Predict the structure.
Amino acid sequence: MGCTRPTKSGRAELGSVPPVDFQVSPDGEHVAWAGRFGGVPVGAATADDAAKAARPVLDDQVGPAYDRILGWAFNDDGTGVWFAQRGDETFRVTAAVP
């Protein structure tokens, strides 16, 4: 299963919060993005590392913690796909739309 280019993309300005890149599903009904939330990624050495945990988000569903999210998009079937890194490993994370 490969990733395809989404039909729409943009940036959300949230007041004093830095801009957030997001992708809109092909049907225009869902939003995928990545954010930094609390939670400890595997191998986090300090509380500061935990505060930097990056998580994939589909609509209001927040995924597991990673060191960083490398990119995200929607497949043609609407499945959200993220590429994430934890330590030296890269993961393909998917989430079906609700």
